Amino acid sequence: MKHSFIDRYSDQDSLIHRLDPRTKFITTLAFILMVTITPVIEWQVFALYLFLIATLILLSKVPILYILQRSLVILPFVALIAISIPFFKEGEVAGSYNIWLWEVSVTYSGLQAFTNILAKAWLSILSLTLLVSTTKMTNLLNGLERLHMPRVMVMILSFMYRYIFVLIDEVMRMKQARDSRNFGGKRLWQIRTIGNMIGTLFIRSYERGERVYAAMLSRGFNGQTRTLDRLNFRPADIYFGISFGLFLILASMINLLY
Amino acid sequence: MQLHLIENPGKRYVIHIPDGFLNVATVATTCVVSAGGVGNAVRLANKKLREKHVPMMGVLAAFIFAAQMLNFPIAGGTSGHLIGAALAAILLGPWAAVLIMSCVLIAQCLIFQDGGLLALGANIFNMGIVASFSGYYLYRLATSFLGSSRRGKLIGGFVSAWGSVLLASIVCAIELTVSGASPIMVVLPAMAGIHALIGIGEGLITAAVISLVLATRADLLELQKI
Known about the structure:
- The structure holds two protein chains of two kinds.
- Chain A is mostly helical.
- Chain A is built from ten helices and two strands.
- In chain A, strands 1-2 form a two-stranded antiparallel sheet.
- By secondary structure, chain B is an all-alpha fold.
- Chain B has a single domain, classed as Arp2/3 complex 21 kDa subunit ARPC3 (Orthogonal Bundle).
- Chain B has a two-stranded antiparallel ribbon with strand order 1-2.
- Chain B starts with a helix and ends in a 10-residue tail after the last helix.
- At the A-B interface, helix 1, helix 4, helix 5, helix 7 and helix 8 of A face helix 1, helix 2, helix 3, helix 5 and helix 8 of B.
């Protein structure tokens, strides 16, 4: 099976790993929300948030390089925003450059908008990466169900999580078969081949779904799922939640102290 | 090798908005709208589908997820991959597609951090609701004009997939503009341009899938739609 890239490091053990998935989910959500509502100019607040998330990453013992690498996923969007900096026209001009025939001027407000988005996006992706690399997917889904996510969705997600591995293996086998038959040629031919692969994958998935349902029914499935894991809030969760929340609130008010 | 492609975020050219790019008002609005849409999809699924369809939808959501791992070449060395909303909507109906795409997007957010957590509202709106419904009705429109012959279905599949990708990217550009992240005259042509190209791949693949399903198990195109 070739799926080491799915929830990597989540089966390790640390202070953060041992927290209840609900605690981690709610604190992550609160963190991203606070980051989103922070006004543009307050860089001290961003620095404090970065300090908080860095401390948690160190505590979680997940390799920092891995988390940094994962956070690169926002790059295409950052590039999209970066090309629009010169188009903010209002405000004081920070610098003006002649690039071939164009005169490009960059204003402070344009730069500020860019750094603001960059800081917010990066802090958010760090916290999200931390959440998923310290929480097993099954536990996270279990926690989400307790937080009143619709049952149908939780069940679809947990079936999905189980069958992703099987289907990825299926895709990899098809890819190997394709590549060993000298895949190449014109672009249209390539796309046609991929279309046939996806079509085959659909039919196989559908038939697998029918077999899975028959197998579940014959084992007494009546629409209920049962798990052995019992989720419990422990004192650690309460301390963590309270101190995390206090830190967020104090950090967001730091500018009032000056 | 291929795993590298999957892990390499630069290769994923699809419109999953990360957190931090949208402002509070846009986040709140899209979350409310998407919650309503998904809620209605859940209600319809509970009413019209029996428990039989839950494992089925789970496996099909995993199918869309796995199908998105097959990159196809676009111009200039870049590659795109399927979004799959139009395909799901053609096969299972728009509300089922909303449900499946929402689960796919949640899984992508939680597994690849592809798309943000608070931005899920916007992403579900763009690629779940907008793409599924536009895909479904474009397919219906095209097949009603061209007749439901094989040719009509293939062209309908192409048009619906292309249109759904384009529309989703336009809505995404509007959300970014409203949030003040980027002026409309930059982000709209950039987004729509890239996705008009990616959409061709999506359209061709969707048509090829329909063609294969028609040839091997045509009954799967006539499933109950919700």
